[in-house]
């Protein structure tokens, strides 16, 4: 998952998918999909009309996490919508050297456009530069390269915004409760994204002087770590009013620990937008009341952008002839009131 820069444009709102931001990469008349249909996952293609043939190389990390797997699936499904698009997809790897080799293979194949979600943005900057120098435009997906010269367009999520909106939601729920206490189950602390999510959360809570964050525990974005670290939090904190968990995958484990402890005296907010979390929110019979999106549909939008680049077209709905240099997606809060709108984008 991502490292996000605050300099990126905060672009649009999170509708049914990230693809909604691009409503028509090559057309001014977007096609809307009904919720629950195939097109609702990753939203409708930007333009059904076939254009010039485009070969898109897609290189992502190993899909060893629900969100990462959803990234790959969104890219594949979007490419299948376009008869003129050929998708050359790599196996995916969390090993930097292996992913560099995979991308160099795509460069040697002379694909028209590259979409890259780097395992490590800084470490893969040079191969991004290599592609750009070879005349292959790069869509840098989520984890940003160290140099803007390594990509033509960056599209990704807003980690600071995730924390900010989680904090605002919890703040509004607890604003009338004197001496309210909250705890935080973070992700990997050595990742910049985790620090950004925590910073956003802390900044939001500054607006609610009645609320104090009494504990924070870092997990590892896995079910097992979520369960273990949540159990520690529950043991250490006999009373609190809200929990923000950074990641819905580790949230599965956190919910197991909560159930085993027999606790239901607080509300929980998740992160990312897993289907399991949305199902629990819709059921409304547990502590999980909301999740803050980090939309994997950004991969579908990256394919739209790559297709537009390959066909030398801009983004419909915008006056400019070229696609933007960067797009930061909005971190919407999914609650019982709006879950049906977002449920089609939930990932396993």
From TrEMBL:
Organism: Streptomyces ficellus
Recorded GO MF terms: carbohydrate binding
Region called Disordered, residue ranges: 29-50
Record family assignment: Belongs to the bacterial solute-binding protein 2 family.
SUPFAM superfamilies reported for this sequence: Periplasmic binding protein-like I
UniProt subcellular location: Cell envelope
Domain Periplasmic binding protein span(s) in chain numbering: 56-312
UniProt entry keywords in alphabetical sequence: Signal
Record-linked Pfam families: Peripla_BP_4 (PF13407)
GO cellular component, one term: cell envelope
Protein name (database record): Sugar ABC transporter substrate-binding protein
């Amino acid at each position: 998952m991502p490292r996000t820069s605050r300099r990126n444009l905060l672009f649009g709102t999170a509708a049914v998918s990230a693809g909604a931001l691009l409503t028509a990469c090559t057309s001014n008349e977007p096609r809307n999909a009904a919720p629950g249909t195939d097109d609702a996952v990753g939203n409708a293609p930007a333009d059904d009309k076939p254009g010039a043939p485009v070969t898109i190389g897609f290189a992502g990390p190993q899909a060893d996490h629900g969100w990462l797997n959803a990234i790959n699936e969104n890219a594949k499904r979007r490419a299948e919508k376009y008869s003129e698009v050929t998708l050359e997809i790599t196996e995916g790897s969390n090993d930097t050297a292996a992913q560099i080799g995979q991308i160099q293979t795509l460069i040697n194949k002379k694909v028209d456009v590259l979409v890259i979600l780097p395992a490590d943005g800084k470490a893969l900057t040079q191969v991004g530069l290599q592609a750009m120098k070879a005349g292959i435009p790069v869509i840098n997906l989520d984890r940003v390269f160290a140099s803007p010269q390594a990509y033509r367009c960056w599209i990704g999520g807003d980690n600071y915004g995730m924390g900010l909106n989680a904090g605002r939601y919890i703040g509004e729920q607890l604003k009338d409760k004197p001496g309210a206490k909250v705890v935080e189950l973070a992700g990997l602390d050595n990742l910049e994204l985790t620090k950004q999510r925590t910073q956003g959360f802390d900044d939001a809570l500054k607006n609610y002087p009645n609320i104090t964050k009494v504990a924070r525990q870092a997990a590892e974005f896995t079910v097992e770590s979520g369960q273990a670290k949540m159990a520690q939090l529950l043991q250490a904190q006999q009373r609190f009013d809200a929990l923000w968990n950074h990641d819905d995958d580790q949230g599965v484990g956190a919910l197991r620990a909560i159930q085993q402890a027999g606790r239901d005296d607080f509300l929980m907010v998740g992160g990312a937008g897993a289907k399991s979390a949305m199902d629990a929110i819709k059921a409304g019979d547990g502590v999980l009341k909301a999740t803050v999106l980090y939309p994997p549909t950004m991969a579908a939008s990256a394919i739209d952008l790559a297709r537009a680049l390959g066909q030398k077209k801009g983004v419909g709905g915008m006056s400019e002839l070229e696609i933007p240099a960067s797009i930061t997606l909005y971190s919407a809060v999914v609650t019982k009131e709006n879950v049906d709108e977002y449920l089609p984008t939930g990932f396993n």
